[in-house]
Design brief:
The chain is an alpha+beta fold. It folds into two domains: 116 residues, GTP Cyclohydrolase I, domain 2 (2-Layer Sandwich); 153 residues, Alpha-Beta Plaits (2-Layer Sandwich). Helices cover 33% and strands 27% of the residues. The protein is built from eight helices and eleven strands. The strands form three sheets. Strands 5, 6, 7, 8 and 9 form a five-stranded antiparallel sheet that branches. The mean pLDDT is 93.
Length: 273
């Protein structure tokens, strides 16, 4: 992908763990590579399809000097976050933050951290069978937006019977496609935090829930850890997930089963017939 490079922007600010760093301040140096499609900017002189690097450097300087953070990791992360928010056309950012005056008291050229993030598509299943079910889904989606998760598509809202053998009220289900620069484990943590904020209490396995947010896919990633399994292991068994999913992504290929979602729906319906 096309790249814009900004190298060694110097900013004076008051970040650091030691009191002297916050009182006296020091020089920091920012370099970054921003990836986005430059075709329209190059061929049509479309300025909306480009990044004004002069304005961006001014914004970085302003953002950099707004706060006083203990760690340069925090500063770099916030720069990446705000750059993605301000420039939706940017698909990937690699940002290095140098601290040449680091208080090491040894011969040293610089200390630096690098944050590298790329936007990616993900699919999230929503479900609720307590309270105002549709309102719960809308609230969860709004909370995703407020955390910088861009909603690309929303399926219709379906009413489905409970799954898992626990007697309970019917569910309202939906699937959304999102774009996010959050890594998959962080995206999962974000969804769990939204559930907690909305008041979900985990008592009965597969039991009633105010809101349920399941991370189904993050592009074609396959992950197996104690905290996260991708793709979600029950997708092919759950019609209440596949039906809304096929509405917005019928040709998406399951990265393990190697079949499009529409085939998985057909197979499950035939098996249930």
């Amino acid at each position: 992908m096309d790249q814009l490079q900004i190298k060694d922007l110097e900013i004076f600010a008051y970040h650091g763990l030691f009191p002297s760093e916050k009182e006296l301040g020091q020089k920091f140096v920012v370099s970054a590579i921003l990836s986005y499609d430059m075709t329209k900017a190059a061929t049509d002189l479309d300025l909306t399809a480009s990044v004004h690097y002069g304005e961006l450097c001014q914004q970085w300087t302003t953002w950099f000097q707004e706060t006083s953070e203990d760690l340069i990791e925090t500063v770099a992360y916030k720069l990446v976050e705000r750059t993605f928010e301000a420039y939706p056309l940017v698909q990937e950012i690699q940002l290095e933050l140098k601290k040449p005056w680091a208080p090491v008291h040894l011969p040293l050229d610089t200390c630096s951290v690098t944050i590298h993030r790329r936007k990616q598509r993900a699919f999230i299943a929503l479900g609720s069978n307590m309270g105002d079910k549709q309102a719960n889904l809308k609230q969860a989606i709004e909370k995703m937006r407020n955390r910088g998760i861009h909603i690309l598509k929303e399926s219709s809202v379906l009413t489905t019977e409970p799954w898992g053998g626990v007697e309970q009220d019917s569910f309202t289900n939906q699937v959304v496609e999102v774009e996010t620069w959050l890594p998959a484990p962080v995206l999962l943590e974000t969804l769990l935090a939204i559930e907690s904020e909305m008041g979900r209490v985990r008592k009965v396995h597969w039991g009633p829930r105010l809101i349920d947010l399941d991370l189904l896919f993050v592009e074609d990633q396959v992950i197996y850890t104690d905290d996260l399994i991708l793709p979600h292991p029950y997708i092919a068994e759950r019609l209440f997930v596949l039906e809304p999913l096929v509405e917005i992504a019928p040709h998406f290929i399951h990265p393990i089963l190697k079949q499009p979602i529409r085939y998985l729906v057909d197979q499950l319906e035939q098996g249930n017939a």
